[in-house]
Structure formats: structure tokens, C-alpha cells
Amino acid sequence: MKLLNKCPxxxxxxxxxxLYQFSYIQKxxxxxxxxxxxxxxxxxxxxxxxxxxxxxxxxxxxDLEVIEPKDFNESxxxxxDIFYLKGGNV
Length: 90
Ligand SMILES: [Zn+2]
What we know:
9 strands; binds zinc ion
């Protein structure tokens, strides 16, 4: 395995796109309506990452599955906040 710290295609800078999923909790009050105050909660385990190259020749979806280029045969995983590449045939 190797560090994923630059674009494996062109060597360009990689960015992560972090998706946080929030949910609003609202209380239904005595009149059957939703209370005006709502509480924003985040569930820590729901945060997702996508990675893309500045030149857009390399891109993953939020499951870290490579969607560009189509024939890319290495998989990406994240361990201790570090992204790695793992060869498909290794
Ligand atoms: Zn690139």
C-alpha cells in the first residue's frame, strides 16, 4: 500500500470533499405543531469523504470508490485519518 497524497494519474493536488449529514430534531408541541426551535445534530459516523484531483482526472464518490478514471484498479481506504491506495492485484 502507498500513501495517497497526490493524484495517482497526473501527480496533481488532491482535495477532499467532506459531506456531513445533519439532522434536525424538532419537538412537536401540545398543539400538534412542530416547535420553532430546532436542534441540529450530527452523527459523527455519517461523515463521508470524496477525493478529487485539481485536474479532475481522478475522482471518487463518497464511498471512496474511484469513478474517474474508469479503469483504475486500486482501491482507496482511510486509516488513522490518512488515505492510502491499495493495488487491485496485490
Ligand atoms: Zn490528476
